[in-house]
């Protein structure tokens, strides 16, 4: 294979009782270069390492390969962080490996800069990231949160009627499909969303690029495949 087309996982966080606030969704589609992996907060690297260790520890003797996108999950929790305070804020900051800053704009600017580096690169590689928040139409939202996540995460809110859970589920799945080049069509199965749902935070990452060391067809052969 000379080209790899992989889909970063799409993370959707369903909140049924948490009282947060909304944001803006515009697709960011740019190019990526490994040389741009100098992070401002170092939080993503620490979070990715912790998450991998946690997933491995929870699945001892796993007989399947594990695939997930730390950046996708990190982005969604960063958007969640922007609407928290007190103990909840402390716990999420700890998980994301970011230092507390009373000036939320400075903190989220640094996090957003790190995420932007993942979607900036060369003509050989395509990386697209999109954020979205789906809110129940009766869920209270504060304007400062809306401004913050719109400015730093390019995320816009969309109001849904979660009491009509099936219509909402289909609509969110359609958004996911559109942002992932139709690679994920049914992220939410039937009955995964119900009338108790108040918020869904979504992040989608799409990646397509060449292998640094491509596998030439002439160098391959049929053989045993061993899971990692």
Commentary on this structure:
This protein is an alpha+beta fold. The chain has one domain: 2-Layer Sandwich (Antithrombin, Chain I, domain 2). It has six helices and six strands, in the order βββααααβαβαβ. It has helices spanning 43-58, 70-81, 86-96, 104-117, 143-153, 165-179; strands at 3-15, 24-25, 28-32, 122-136, 155-160, 199-210. Strands 1, 2, 3, 4, 5 and 6 form a six-stranded mixed β-sheet that branches. The radius of gyration is 19 Å and the shape is globular. Residues 1-25 form the signal peptide. This is Serpin B9. InterPro entries: Serpin_dom (IPR023796), Serpin_fam (IPR000215), Serpin_sf (IPR036186), Serpin_sf_1 (IPR042178). Belongs to the serpin family.
Q: What are the salient characteristics of this protein?
A:
6-stranded mixed β-sheet, signal, disordered N terminus, Antithrombin, Chain I, domain 2, globular, Serpin_sf_1, alpha+beta, 6 helices, 228 residues, 35% helix, 6 strands, Serpin_sf
